[in-house]
Amino acid sequence: MSHPLTCDVVVVGAGMAGAACALYAARSGLDVVVVDRGPVAGGTTGAGEGNLLVSDKEPGPELDLALLSNRLWSELAGEFGEFGEFIEYEAKGGVVVATSPGGLTALERLAGEQRAAGVVAEPVDGDALYGLEPHLAPGLPGAVHYPQDAQVMPALAAAHLVRASGARLLTGRTVTGVLRTRDGAVLGVRTDHGDIHAPALVNAAGTWGGEVAALAGVILPVLPRRGFVLVTEPLPRLVHHKVYAADYVADVASDSAALQTSPVVEGTAAGPILIGASRERVGFDRSFSLPALRALAADATRLFPFLADVHAIRSYLGFRPYMPDHLPAVGPDPRVPGLFHACGHEGAGIGLSTGTGHLIAQVLTARTPDLDLTPFRPDRFAEEAA
User: Fold this and answer.
1) H or E element: which one contains 332?
2) Which is nearest to 65 in space by CA: 364, 374, 351, 366?
3) DSSP bridge partners of 5
4) Angstrom distance (rounded) from CA 242 to CA 277
5) Closest listed residue to residue 302, CA positions, set 279, 278, 275
6) Sequence-distant (≥ 6) Cβ neighbours of residue 206 within 8 angstroms
7) Burial environment of residue 368 by CB neighbours within 10 A (0 to 12, 13 to 18, 19 or more)
C-alpha cells in the first residue's frame, strides 16, 4: 500500500484564488500541494475576463482587499519582467460612464468616497471623455477615469502563478473527504487517487466551495451566479480602456436572482472585444440564453454604436461564486482547526486573488494579516443556518 502524500498545506482548487494561495504560501516557506478535479483554471477562472478592478467597489472591506490585491498584481507583473507579458497584464485603466446627469452626480459622489479610501478616481467631463474613448456614443455627460484598473488573461495567470510557486500540482483528482484527527482538526484530504496528509487545508474551490466546506462538516453558503460574455471578431484597437456604465456597480451589489445586464466593454491585446456583464441565479444551468446575449449586445451598442456592424463570433458562460453579503470567505474557520477558506469572491476573484493568497499565507504562518479578516469570517452565516 502506498504511503499518503504529505505536505504543510493542501490547496483545493487550481483556479486563480488557489494559484495565488499556493504562490504566497510557498513563498512563506510552506510545502504546498494543489489538487483539482479538473485542469488549472477549469472552473470560473477560465470563464472570466480577467478584471483587476477597484472602480466597481464601494468603500469597505472588499475595496480594501482590492487595493491590496491591485498593488500585489502590479508587483508580480514587474517582478517577473516578461512574466507581465505571459499573463497579458495590461494596466489599461477603467472608464465608468454616466448616461444621464443624475447618474453623473451619483457617480461623482461615489468617486469622492473612493478617493478618501485610497483610490485614484479622476472626473472626466464630456469633452475630455471623447479624448479617452473617441468611439463612445455622442452626448454622454461625463465619466470617472480609474487608472488603477487593470486586466490579466486569467487562465494564463493561474497557470503561471502555480508554476512560479513550485507547488506540487495534482489535476484530475477529486477530493472526496476531509481527514480529521480525533479532536476534529484537519489531517488532510481523501481523493479518488489516494490520501494527502496536511495539517492545513485551504478551500479555494470557488463556486464549489460550499461542497468542500460540507466535506469538512461546516456550512458555507456559496451560490452560483451565471454570467455570459460575448466575444467579437478581431478588430483594431477601438476601445482603449475597460468601459462600463455606472449602473454596473448597482447590478454587482444587487441580491436579485433575475437576469440583469449592464454594459462592460473592453478591447483585448489579441484583438477581439469582450462584452459583459450579465448575472442571474439559475443554479448550475449551462444552457445557452439568447435573451441574455441579446441584452448584452443591445447594451454595448448603446455605449459604442460602431458595434452594431461588428460580428460576435462566440460567447461563453461561467458561474460566479456568490455569497449572500457579497463578501468572500477568507481566513481560518474557527469551527474546524486547520481549515481555511479562500472562496466566494463572485465576479471579482481574479482581481482579489493576490490579496487573498497573501492574507491566507500570513495566517497560515501565524503572522498578523495586513487586513482585518473579521468581515470575511467563514462562520459569519452560521447563526442564520442554524
Assistant:
1) strand 329-332
2) 351
3) 196
4) 12
5) 275
6) 13, 15, 17, 43, 44, 45, 222, 321, 343, 345, 349
7) exposed
Cβ-proximal residues to 43 (8 Å cutoff; 6+ apart), any chain: 13, 15, 205, 206, 207, 208, 318, 319
Residue 110 has pLDDT above 60, yes or no: yes
Residue 115's alpha-carbon distances to 62, 63, 69, 122, 185, in angstroms, are 15, 11, 17, 9, 43
Asked which of 153-157, 255-259, 354-358 is least confident by mean pLDDT, the reply is 255-259
The yes-or-no verdict on residue 288 having pLDDT over 60 is yes
Would the pLDDT of 385 be above 60? no
Q: Coil, strand, or helix at residue 330?
A: strand
pLDDT tens track for 163-217: 999 999 999 999 999 999 999 999 999 999 999 999 999 999 999 999 999 999 9
Rg for the chain (alpha carbons), in Å?
21
Counting every residue, how long is the chain? 386
Longest dimension (CA), the chain: 73
Burial class of 306 by CB neighbour count within 10 A (0 to 12, 13 to 18, 19+): middle
Antiparallel, parallel or unpaired: β 32-36 and 51-52: unpaired
Nearest Cα to 17, choosing from 202, 186, 213?
202
Q: Is 294 helix (H, G, I), strand (E, B) or coil?
A: helix
For residue 185, the SS3 value is coil
pTM, full prediction: 0.94
pLDDT for res 363: 98
Residue 250 has pLDDT above 90, yes or no: no
